[in-house]
Specification:
Elements: H1 24-28, H2 31-42, H3 55-59, H4 63-90, H5 95-119, H6 121-157, H7 169-199, E1 217-222, H8 223-226, E2 236-242, H9 249-267, E3 273-279, H10 295-300, E4 303-307, H11 309-322, H12 325-337, E5 347-348, H13 356-370, H14 377-387, H15 392-413, H16 415-424, H17 428-431, E6 439-440, H18 442-451, H19 458-484, E7 487-491, E8 496-500, E9 505-510, H20 530-543, E10 546-547, H21 549-564, H22 571-581, H23 587-596, E11 598-599, E12 608-609, H24 610-614, H25 617-621, H26 635-656, H27 658-661, H28 666-677, H29 690-705, H30 712-722, H31 726-731, H32 737-747, H33 752-767, H34 771-775, H35 778-787, H36 792-795, H37 803-833, H38 836-847, H39 849-856, H40 859-871, H41 876-893, H42 896-903, H43 910-916, H44 919-922, H45 927-936, E13 945-950, E14 958-965, H46 970-980, E15 983-994, E16 1000-1010, H47 1018-1026, E17 1046-1053, E18 1058-1064, E19 1067-1072, E20 1075-1083, H48 1088-1098, E21 1105-1111, E22 1114-1121, H49 1123-1131, H50 1134-1142
Parallel strand pairs: 2-3, 9-10, 15-18
Antiparallel strand pairs: 1-2, 1-4, 5-6, 7-8, 8-9, 11-12, 13-14, 14-16, 15-16, 15-21, 17-20, 18-19, 20-22, 21-22
Helix pairs in contact: 2-5, 5-9, 6-7, 6-9, 12-13, 13-19, 14-15, 15-19, 20-22, 20-23, 23-26, 26-28, 26-33, 28-30, 28-33, 29-30, 30-33, 32-35, 37-38, 37-40, 37-41, 37-42, 37-45, 38-39, 38-42, 40-41, 46-48, 48-50
Keywords: Hydrolase, Magnesium, Multifunctional enzyme, Nucleotidyltransferase, Transferase
Pfam families: GlnD_UR_UTase (PF08335)
Protein name: PII-uridylyltransferase/Glutamine-synthetase adenylyltransferase domain-containing protein
């Protein structure tokens, strides 16, 4: 049966046009005869639905209408079947027979549904052709644009010689993943285009027979349906298996469309139907992930309803070959651990201990490890009986328990049908109950006793129920114990490993003979070889096994000899081991065991642990008590708990946020786990701030292992350790939630990847402090959810905007919001200094009379807030309440433009302030501070230099906001003066500003800590800098100096760089400019920033922008320069010049 003239001869051979006229055979058969003809081909006469379905009427309907007709027919048939079974359920019968009857009925319905779809094949193919023609046009028009985008991304990421383009690592990782996804999209689109061009013309000759798909297709039942244990409470689980190697591409394409049509029909049915589509030969590794492991046994116990048994067998073999048996068994064992313990008066039929799921987990273990030929529950029980694993009585108990539970599920699934009967019996309240299908409680038991002819008293029912649960709990555990009681051998490179499946413990470690063909007797001296040692503990970290107690003791005995040889540890292999160890899935479990394997404390009480053999600082963390009023555990245990929590949070985040998870790399996994294990390392010195000391110690540890101290990886780790509590502090800014979010965003340097890393470290640490903290972490998760609004666009696939564009747009919106809050604060200040009438109500009356009238009605409330804020005598919370009341009233009655018009007379340099001052400062300061500084800088151009100083709160930096005109070197003077006063620069950002009159200035801020604790004022700073004479570093003496550890990198930034330009008097704009970011990484040193600026000045380079970052004792500064200036720096070897300047000595200036 085909379309004789489905595709006419194309005018353009590359673009066939479709003609949907019928061919000779279709013209001969009218639609009714065609449908009847197809029905007779695909259905046997004994199918119960054949005669009752109105095929003639169905043939008059289109596909959409027929779908509704099909659903109506199902409801009638299902209702009739349920009515019959509802009566049978109440009689004394065997539920095991009933579930087979239900399964048979559903089999026939699925077969009937497939026959209906096959009978619609002509129409389905016609629709497929239309869609394919449309898709062909879409692909032809859309693919070139995607190919161009791929080329653009390749040009962005790689230089013409194929080497990696200089770019910020975080941004490179983002675009690299975007390129990978887009490349895959293009490859998939190209393959689909080729398929359509090949198959579309062939549809005109498409013919099928009754057995067209039998060789390559199997429609199978899974789960309880697959075991023929389907109840009226069950899901109906299906799978569609296709073997592409046994059919043409055209048949595969049509078959997929028929499957989609079958799914459409099933969606209309009032049942929970779940289905999966598989192709033989596809990569099944995704099912080895923990979240998908349950799919494996559902396939292994599946059976064919329609199609090829060979296809199912081949797919089961493929699934079994892929199945990670040990992981699967461990997963099932863990799932048993979370089953509910039933209450005495209530039964969890499915999810309780001794319930259906418990028994099924035991059977699945048997299925995975023993591969029985028969997979139904009672068939497995008979197999276990034959093997002697269970007794005859236990087999009978399993059968009895299964029958009872299935009976209860049928009763509860049909309960709605029994309500009229209960009402007639006078049980009106009972008839109003809404019973859950898997929970058998007192109300369900009462209904069961009144309706069901099985038990005569509640005592009989309770006795039977409790006995069943108790016995099945015991038998299921017994089966699982027998399954798990076996050893598994694994041949590793250096030795044979024997582990026990049930205990998850490594029992033996055996050396090989010289030929490696066989294992010899136990001899742990082979682990005096460092490579064998690395291989063993890396294996434990990757697989989650433990050493047996005896082996752990043996390694403790070996540790003394290893300790004496620790100076001989080769650094290269150790670095590789540590790097892989901290990326493994079960790092926490392996690290915990390595910490427990230890020698006795020495005479001075010093610990010597196995982990400390490689990472000596770990020994100082052993049983160290700090902050015991909050911390429930010693430092070493808290750190291990935090690491274990990190592994849990990573798994949860990956599942919850798959689109954001793609930002993270293997290197990030290392940074996360290392940082969280050593986040409190600074506490080993009780006299230092652990948040400052921690990054320094981590730097020393990783540097000793051979990691580059100036690498992005170490930058990341220093940031995470220093700020492992910062997010907690930001999240507690409850009255300024947005301010906390923006502070967090700026701390992460506007990098989505760092946002995620900081969140995971902060959350893991917080939850591990004590038991109560773990329960109170909700506010952190809420805070991060709010922060994710920044990343919303990254979650959406197909986003064509760049990372920087999305981030900048978000920040621009936040700056506008901040500006509106500053306007409101400024109006409040003026009202306090003057009066409500003078500042707001009088000018508003002429500006917006209606708004003035509405606001005037709240005069008393506004006046009260102004009065109390002016006095300032109330407690902080009360003052805050009055502040927000004033702000709310102005927001409610005035639009933003009206509020700005009222505030404009009081400050003349609005545009300059919000365009020139860096966003990272505008968004990290509260509106009250910005309003004060806006007033401080009003009339800025009347002086060449102006400062605004804000003393930081406890735990926060002091801030120095500044403006300078006509002398770009003033920032070097500012840095020098601040250093001379004992202020260490930790953060900062400086922008270059080009004024309309040709003048050039800078506007920026520094933030730092004051080690001298001396008072600093803006006036004093301005005076000091105006009279400062900088030391001459033009001819520094660098002879006999130790070279500084510095690294200079050049990264092209096409979107991040900008210059502030005054387009016309008083109108400022940020103009994007392609720049080079010169990244300078080095150890923090006094006058470091000043010396960097001096080195740049010596080469005739003045940056367009500067970003200052200090984490721990490491400086990571970015200097944005033009392309010509970058050429100067490269040609004159800026890194060497900088090294010489850094080694120059500066005598104290005494300022």
């Amino acid at each position: 049966m085909g379309f004789a003239s489905f595709v006419t001869a194309p005018v353009d051979s590359e673009k066939p046009r479709l003609d949907f006229s019928f061919g000779p055979v279709e013209q001969w058969l009218n639609p009714s005869l065609f449908l009847l003809f197809m029905k007779n081909r695909f259905l046997s006469a004994d199918n119960p639905f054949v005669q009752e379905f109105d095929w003639t009427h169905a043939a008059t309907l289109n596909l959409k209408e027929r779908k509704g007709f099909f659903a109506e027919f199902f409801l009638k048939q299902w209702d009739k079947f349920c009515a019959q079974e509802a009566k049978l359920t109440l009689k004394r019968g065997n539920a095991l027979v009933q579930v087979e009857r239900i399964s048979d009925w559903m089999d026939q319905w699925v077969i009937f549904s497939w026959a209906v779809v096959r009978s619609e094949e002509r129409e389905v193919v016609r629709e497929l052709a239309k869609e394919s023609q449309s898709k062909l046009g879409f692909l032809r028009s859309g693919l070139p644009a995607k190919e161009i985008k791929v080329e653009e991304l390749q040009g962005l990421l790689y230089l013409p010689d194929g080497s990696r383009s200089p770019m910020d690592p975080a941004e490179y990782a983002y675009y690299d993943k975007l390129l990978l996804e887009l490349t895959q999209e293009v490859a998939g689109g190209t393959e689909e285009l080729e398929l359509l061009e090949e198959t579309l013309p062939s549809l005109k000759d498409y013919k099928s027979s009754a057995s067209a798909y039998d060789r390559c297709f199997a429609l199978v039942a899974r789960g309880g349906f697959g075991r023929r244990e389907l109840t009226f409470s069950s899901d109906v689980d299906l799978a569609y298996l296709v073997d592409p190697s046994r059919c043409s591409r055209l048949i595969l394409m049509v078959l997929q469309e028929l499957i989609r049509r079958l799914q459409e029909l099933f969606v209309e049915m009032p049942l929970d139907m779940a289905s999966q589509y598989f192709e033989l030969g596809e990569d099944l590794s995704r099912f080895a992930e923990t979240d998908a492991l349950h799919t494996i046994p559902s396939i292994l116990e599946a059976r064919v309803i329609q199609g090829s048994q060979k296809t199912l067998k081949a797919f089961q073999d493929q699934m079994r070959a892929m199945c990670p048996q040990e992981k699967m068994v461990r997963y099932l064992k863990s799932q048993v651990g979370v089953l509910h313990q039933d209450r005495l008066d209530e039964l969890e039929i499915k999810e309780g201990r001794g319930g259906l799921r418990h028994m099924q987990y035991a059977n699945w273990m048997v299925l995975v490890l023993l591969n029985p030929k028969k997979t139904r529950s009672l068939e497995i029980a008979q197999g276990l009986l034959a093997m002697g694993w269970i007794t005859k009585v236990e087999a009978e108990l399993l059968s009895q328990g299964l029958e009872f539970f299935l009976d209860l599920r049928n009763f509860l699934g049909l309960f709605e049908r029994y309500k009229p009967q209960l009402t007639a019996m006078g049980e009106v309240q009972l008839a109003k109950e809404s019973l859950k299908v898997d929970r058998f409680n007192d109300r369900a038991a009462m209904a069961y006793l009144k309706l069901k002819d099985r038990f005569t008293t509640v005592d009989q029912l309770d006795r039977f129920r409790l006995n069943t649960v108790t016995q099945l709990d015991r038998i299921a555990d017994k089966i699982m114990s027998r399954v798990l009681d076996r050893n598994i051998e694994e041949r590793l490179e250096g030795f044979l490993l024997v582990k026990h499946l049930g205990s998850n413990e490594v029992q033996k470690l055996l050396p090989y003979s010289a030929s490696k063909k066989r294992a010899l007797g136990e001899n742990l001296s082979l682990f005096l070889d460092w490579d064998n040692l690395y291989e063993l503990f890396l294996y434990l970290a990757k697989n989650g096994n433990n050493l047996s107690p005896q082996l752990a003791e043996d390694f403790s005995g070996l540790l003394g000899e290893l300790w004496s040889q620790r100076a001989e540890i080769p650094p290269g292999p150790l670095k590789v081991f540590i790097y892989e160890f901290f990326q493994a899935e079960y790092t926490a479990q392996a690290a915990s065991q390595m910490l427990e394997i230890a020698l006795p404390l020495d005479s001075e009480g010093r610990a010597r642990t196995f982990l400390g053999l490689f990472l000596p600082e770990v020994n100082q963390m052993r049983y160290l008590l700090r902050n015991t009023e909050v911390h429930q555990y010693p430092l070493c245990l808290h750190s291990l708990k935090a690491l274990r929590q990190m592994e849990l949070e990573m798994a949860r985040f990956r599942k919850r946020e798959p689109e954001l998870w793609r930002f993270l790399t293997r290197e990030d996994f290392f940074a996360l786990k290392w940082s969280v294990l050593f986040h409190d390392l600074g506490k080993i010195n009780p006299y230092k701030d652990h948040e400052e000391q921690g990054p320094k110690l981590a730097n020393l540890m990783l540097g000793r292992l051979g990691f580059d101290e100036n690498s992005d990886l170490l930058d990341q780790i220093r940031l995470l350790i220093q700020h492992h509590q910062s997010m907690v502090r930001f999240a507690k800014l409850s009255t300024h939630m947005d301010l906390g979010i923006l502070k967090f965003f700026e701390l992460a340097q506007r990098d989505p990847r760092r946002l995620i890393l900081l969140y995971l470290v902060n959350l893991s640490d917080f939850k591990s402090v004590n038991d109560k903290m773990a329960e109170k972490a909700g506010f952190l998760e809420d805070f991060f959810e709010r922060t994710l609004s920044i990343l919303e666009e990254f979650r959406r696939r197909g986003n064509q905007r760049s990372l920087t564009q999305i981030t900048n747009d978000f920040l621009d919106r936040k700056v506008e919001e901040q500006k509106e809050l500053v306007v409101l604060d400024l109006l409040l200040r003026q009202c306090c200094h003057k009066s409500l009438d003078e500042v707001v109500l009088t000018p508003l009356a002429s500006l917006a009379p209606k708004a003035a009238e509405g606001l005037g009605k709240n005069r008393k409330e506004l006046g009260s807030s102004i009065h109390y804020l002016n006095l300032g005598e109330l407690d902080v919370k009360s003052l805050e309440k009055h502040y927000f009341r004033f702000v709310r009233l102005l927001k409610d009655h005035l639009n933003p433009e009206e509020r700005f018009q009222l505030a404009q007379p009081y400050v003349s340099d609005w545009d300059w302030f919000f365009a020139t001052i860096p966003n990272r400062y505008l968004l990290s300061a509260d509106p009250q501070r910005l309003a004060r500084q806006l007033i401080d800088f009003d009339g800025y151009n009347k002086s060449a230099l102006r400062f605004s100083f804000v003393k930081g709160d406890a735990g926060e930096y002091d801030s120095f906001l500044f403006y300078a005109m006509n002398d770009l070197s003033l920032q070097a003077k500012i840095a020098f003066a601040l250093n001379s006063k004992g202020i260490n620069l930790e953060q900062g950002k400086i922008n270059q500003v080009r004024y309309a009159g040709g003048q050039i200035g800078i506007v920026g801020f520094f933030q730092g800590t004051n080690s001298h604790k001396a008072e600093v004022t803006a006036v004093e700073l301005e005076s000091t800098i105006a009279n400062l004479v900088l030391p001459d570093l033009g001819r520094p003496s660098w002879a006999h100096k130790t070279p500084s550890k510095i690294q200079v990198q050049y990264m092209l930034e096409r979107e991040k760089g900008y210059v502030v330009v005054e387009r016309e008097k008083g109108r400022f704009e940020r103009v994007t400019q392609e720049v080079w970011a010169v990244k300078v990484s080095m150890l923090d040193t006094t006058y470091g920033y000043f010396k960097i600026m001096a080195a740049l000045d010596s080469l005739g380079v003045m940056p367009l922008q500067v970003t200052v970052n200090t984490v721990g004792n490491q400086i990571v500064d970015y200097f944005y320069v033009s392309t010509p200036d970058r050429t100067k720096l490269v040609d004159q070897d800026f890194e060497t010049v900088l090294g010489r300047f850094l080694n120059s000595e500066i005598q104290s200036q005494g300022i």
